[in-house]
Amino acid sequence: MGQRVVITGIGIYSCLGANLEEVTKSLYAGKSGIVFDQIRKDFGFRSALTGMVPEPDLKSFLSRRQRVGMHQPAIYAYMATKEALEYAGLDIDFLEKTETGIIYGNDSTAASVVEAIDKAKEKHDTMLIGSGAIFQNMNSTVNMNLSTIFKLKGINFTLSAACASGSHSIGMGYLMISQGLQDRVICGGAQEINAASMAAFDGLGTFSVRESEPARASRPFDRDRDGLIPSGGAATVILESYETAMERGAPILGELIGYGFSSNGDHISNPSIDGQKRSLQMALKQAGIAREEVDYINAHATSTPVGDGSEARAIFDVFGEKVPVSSTKSMTGHECWMAGASEIVYSLLMMQNSFIAPNINFENPDEDSARINIISETKEQKIDCFLSNSFGFGGTNSTLIIKKV
Amino acid sequence: MYANDVKMSWEEVIEGTRDFLSTEFEVDRSEIRPENSLKDTLDLDSLDYVDLVVLIEENLGIKLSGEDFREIVTFGDFYQLVRKKLAL
């Protein structure tokens, strides 16, 4: 590859906390962000469990005109990106004068669409939907809003790849920079949290119904899991060429050395061990490292028997039994379009603070998870290199490898 | 509450309008005076006129169109338009 690609800023707005500091504490403590949401029960959900974040008030940061086109995905992404830009030492003045891109993962805007259509049906007049709805309703809502707010002048698009959206967005940013096409790209993933966005998913019967114990409901790799729990928020990862980062004295959190990807080309929702292995192997090959050099794997594992089982087998086949593995979804639930980016942020926080966050609720292994090294309690450990998996509906797989510089 | 639904005095309509405009467009209420420019005071761009139509419909129960705003320069002009539509 060409240019080296480093991470110079991260930001997070998740059910584990509203900023990096809060999230680091939650990860270390093994704290769950899952709650029971009565609105979902009243709506007719099979499972009322979800990760939850507070709705931030952006009035003190943004003008009315800037806010009207924003619904949850853009609002959460703004919070995460604001923190990431501050971390990276990038202000609007600098962004306006240079070429910085944005490739953000998002795959739904359900609640804002429902609100707009309900309004049109009530009023029988599309003008009475208001001017903000179109910018809230399009799937590219995050990059439309953030590129305008932060005066971005580079590449500008949304990446939709189901639950691998956030991970692929970082992969695409990586390719842009490594090819010399961009110096800096804001990447990430956003996921709305509301009944409209998850009703159809709930209808598939794949969500956990352990409603009496929300904090114990997400149990990736555990024998007694009964399904995933939806969640959301946003995570931002700022990628930059090593050269540019050094020139401006930016903080360097790590270097992205491998982006593997594959498509299963098979069932629309069932995972494929072969597809996952191809993604893992591609990332390893591109990184040019031996499998023993990976100190930690942040698994995609969502707490479904089929998904967790196939990933455990793919990890065992490629890495063997030694490498420490945990799924932070045990605490966050499945952050879907955001997960691939948030799990890079979580893993970077672990790398910075030399610990592995626990795969909480892993009490009894099954046949597959017994073969890999799942970390069920917080472990103090130096991490020099980690790998993060993301797999999505449609058989889209993404694997990222990051090492310390 | 729509102005058409209850008997509101013209002064009540104006004061109510100043309230919802200042709240929505985040401007000081004292800036909303008959002689001041509607566009400049509320800092309206082309998209904001759509929201102005929505606000008027929600608060006064009358439907304006984009064309209605062609001749409007000041809040005074705007109040006259509202008065005409409300037939007050």
From TrEMBL, chain A:
The keyword Cytoplasm applies. It comes from the Bacteria. One of its GO terms (molecular function) is 3-oxoacyl-[acyl-carrier-protein] synthase activity. CDD domains: KAS_I_II. It is found in: Cytoplasm. Homodimer. This is 3-oxoacyl-[acyl-carrier-protein] synthase 1. It comes from Dyadobacter linearis.
From TrEMBL, chain B:
It is found in: Cytoplasm. Coiled coil: none annotated. Keywords: Cytoplasm, Fatty acid biosynthesis, Fatty acid metabolism, Lipid biosynthesis, Lipid metabolism, Phosphopantetheine, Phosphoprotein. Carrier of the growing fatty acid chain in fatty acid biosynthesis. The gene is acpM. This is Acyl carrier protein. InterPro entries: ACP (IPR003231), ACP-like_sf (IPR036736), PP-bd_ACP (IPR009081). Its main location: cytoplasm. 4'-phosphopantetheine is transferred from CoA to a specific serine of apo-ACP by AcpS. This modification is essential for activity because fatty acids are bound in thioester linkage to the sulfhydryl of the prosthetic group. Pathway: Lipid metabolism; fatty acid biosynthesis. It comes from the Bacteria. Residues 8-86 form the Carrier domain. The modification O-(pantetheine 4'-phosphoryl)serine is found at S46. Belongs to the acyl carrier protein (ACP) family.
